[in-house]
Amino acid sequence: MDSTPLYDWAPVARLMLLGVVLAMGPLAWIWLRNRQAAPAQRLKALTLLTLFLTFDLVLFGAFTRLTDSGLGCPDWPGCYGSASPLGAHQEIREAQTAMPTGPVTFSKAWIEMIHRYLATAVGVLIIVMTAVSWLERRRLAISPWWPTVTLIWVCLQGAFGALTVTMKLFPAIVTMHLLGGLILLALLRAQSVWLGAGAAGVGSAANVPRLAIWLVFGLLWCQVALGGWVSTNYAVLACRDFPTCQGSWWPAMDFLRGFEFWRELGESRSGGAIPFAALTAIHYTHRLFAYVVLLALGWLAWRLWTQPETRGVARWVLILAAWQLLTGVSNVVLEWPLLAAVSHTGGAAGLVIVLTGVLVAARRADASRVPFTSSTVSRPV
After folding, report:
1. Is the pTM above the cut of 0.85?
2. Residues 6+ apart with CB under 8 A from 47
3. Active-site residue, 112 included
4. DSSP states of 222-286 as a string?
5. Distance between CA 243 and CA 372 in Å, rounded?
6. 309 falls in which pLDDT band (50, 70, 90)?
7. Of 91, 112, 264, 267, which one is the catalytic site residue?
8. Could you count the other beta carbons within 10 Å of the beta carbon of residue 306?
9. DSSP state, 105?
10. CA angle 23, 77, 163 (to 5 degrees)
């Protein structure tokens, strides 16, 4: 009888062990700095640190994609079945010898695996956040379901990461993986604000209609999705001039094939090569929608600036909007430099964090004006 297991769980176990080891450093630092603190204070510190590391993870994920390292290890979760490229030295050398500029090289393998190590460490920190929230739920003014949902989401992110590799950088999967990372940032930011980090003053933005803030937030997410579609289809250089594209205000564009969602990288749904006009449509749509989003962000910053308590938030909105404009134009006229491309992703992540903070802090301020009940604690938003 064949006793060979259906699936080899050893790479998963080794990767999880490495994630635990990496997470021990931040956890020890939090414990040492907050030994005498209340549970809520320790959880707030852990949430903020996890938010910071997740932001770094999003940036490193962009770096991994932009250096074409997404297939540096063409299997998942290990690298040719090993926990690190060290154990896959022979396989990587053979692949690199066969195709020196191909997707598998020693440097790309290390970049890909470091990204996986960081992601696993963030997952471990979220597991700890969830456990603490449930153990201390009677003493915390936040529902333990917040970190629980975050834990479920980070597991889904891991699944999308696996599909990114196994489906060979399928554009729709890679774009959803990017959006999932930003949703994870939003979930962590919401929890940090509800725990009291960065909420002061934001909830007093009474002169800004809540529906208008949600509208700006929705426009931002649409623009992020369009930007992800540009990047995952390698359409950045379809337009190499600004503000025109290919010397025209309305170049030849194929929207139908440009926005076919479920297709292979570089191919149309029918299987042929995607035409250049489709890449142009992808790029130019993102650029045109950027003007709308920049105007919306400018309006929101102006409304926030009218109150002294929210001028700090308004300043951040303006800075990040200007940063996005600068890095976006730099990607075009400087032909997609790595620093500008990664910085553009960082600016988008920063805007998600700031606007999430505005919305959740405003909701927290509303809840604080409601008489205290047990339901207020269990349902913070």
Report:
1. yes
2. 129, 188, 191, 192, 195, 197
3. yes
4. HHHHHHHHHHHTT-GGG--SSSSBTTBSS----HHHHT--S--TTB-TTSSBPPHHHHHHHHHHH
5. 54
6. confident
7. 112
8. 12
9. -
10. 115
